[in-house]
Amino acid sequence: MIRALLQRLLWLAAALAAVNCPAQQVAATPATEHFATAAAAFERADYALALTEFRAAIAAGSAGPAAHYNAAVCEYRLGDYAASAASFRELGLAFPEMRALADYNLGLSQYRQDEPALARESLLRAASAEDVQIATLAEAMLARLPAERPAEGASRRWFGLVDFGLGHDDNVALIDPLVLPAGESGESPFAELSVYGAGPMTASGAWQLWTNLYLIDFDDAPVYDQRIFQLGASYETAAGDWFIVAGPRFGRSDIGGDGFERTSGVAAEASRSIATASRIELVAAYDSADELDNRFAYIAGDRRSLGLRVEKTLSRARLIVEYHASTDDRVGAGVSSERDLYRLTWRQAWGESWTGNLHVEFRATDYDRLVPARTEDRIQGGVRAVRRFGEDWQLGVDYRYADNDSTDATFTYERHRLAVGASRLF
Fold first, then answer.
1. Domain spanning 2-155: CATH superfamily
2. Which of 32, 98, 220, 245 has its CA 20 to 30 A from that of 282?
3. Number of neighbouring beta carbons within 10 Å of residue 121
């Protein structure tokens, strides 16, 4: 399917070149040489080389959408769906005549990333295209999606994700275990469940509604059981080279079976490509919190955060560098802080079914309203391996380690967390 569309685009590029360049004026250039090498590599399924050569053609000045489209297809074939989604989105913005084809392939990439609501909207846009072939392909893909065709209307355009896990955490309380009250444990097996749903609020799909429920139960430490419910909306738009997503969000959380916190706020993200196979993302958020029980009055206040994220796509891998700064201004000095977080993530794909994730982060926190002031430095790392089964199921194993060093010995601790889980897309 993608190969047929690629051949079609290659034919279109050749036809345009023939129209614009008389035969006697045609001469090889670095861009055309790279493009020809890339096309030959693609035909023999050497997608890593083809991607490198298509990018080289773009860097050498290849005009038109062909090299951009073909590079995105290579990213998709290599299993780097986040990179292909970004490339197809940029293709549609940069070349309006390619919007329908870009939307179709964007939908495939988003679906592979378990972003069902976004995938559905992209495919629906492609299905309404004037190009009969693209519209037919999009309709066929929509018909293959799980739980499809229930009825006309917005309900058929919703997606859901259910994730269930079992594991063991040796420091649930995130403090020195020696200071826990007698009879209270900070080490416990746990079970967790996350249910996510999202879908369009408007016919155009620009407004999305999403909701998430997260539950975790600790067998030996029920006082730390959590229930978190979130509801939000987001508006998606393009502004020049930037892709922007922004909207309100609301939440409620319970701890140990008691009402804990109610939040409301707004978040915004803006992203764009900055170089070949590289992207930058800026994020900002504000949330206001109120206690749900007088015992937790100290958590009332607000949080402000800013973040910067840079991604570099390599052959079958992606490197992500992040920085986030946040300020908590709460009633209680012990929960009011200035925090800086630095994170490095490496994601690697193996074949069509396996992916791996390795991350390392450093977090520095200042509680300068406390007397005496407290500072904390936390180093955390983790590895995750995921195996996909078919289009809808995946199994994963996740391990995390943390070492927190605090000027108050109570909050100096180590933590080991291991979990195995399964997720299902609906």
1. Tetratricopeptide repeat domain (1.25.40.10)
2. 98
3. 24
